[in-house]
Structures are given as C-alpha cells and as structure tokens.
Design brief:
Layout (H helix, E strand, L loop, with lengths): L1 H13 L6 H22 L7 H29 L1
Length: 79
C-alpha cells in the first residue's frame, strides 16, 4: 500500500542527521504504529470513534477560522 511508503519516507525525512540508532528504531516503531492504526481505520477493523472524529473536525474548523483571521490582520497591517 502506498500509505506505508509515504509514512516511511516521511519518517526518513524527519529523522535528524546523526541521530543515534536507538532514536531511529524508536521513530521507526512509531511510524509502524501510525501505519497500522490508519490502515485499521481504513479497512474497518478498528475505526476511530465518531466522537473523536467530530471533535477533531470541530477543532480543525476553529483553527481554520483563526488562520483566516490572522491572514486578514496581516494583510491589513501591511497596507
């Protein structure tokens, strides 16, 4: 699945240069956990709860509004 590839590539890109082997293994384990959890949701074997999904959507909407307000303020400050 491409998701596995993307998570692996993102993990490789985020490991600091010169990181200890121990740190690389820890991050690799985290990446594997992300992959498993996401695929479990997508294949329906362990979906995220609707409550958590709705909470995430609500928070995201709030941050979207804050971002737009920040952009408007920045634009008005430049003028």
């Amino acid at each position: 699945m491409e998701l596995k590839m993307y998570i692996g590539l993102a993990m490789a890109d985020t490991i600091p240069e010169g990181a200890a082997r121990e740190e690389e293994e820890k991050l690799s384990g985290f990446a594997v956990g992300l992959y498993k959890r996401i695929t479990s949701h997508l294949d329906g074997s362990e979906p995220f709860s609707e409550t958590k999904l709705e909470a995430y959507r609500a928070v995201t909407r709030i941050f979207d509004v804050v971002q737009i307000l920040g952009e408007v303020v920045a634009r008005n400050t430049e003028e």
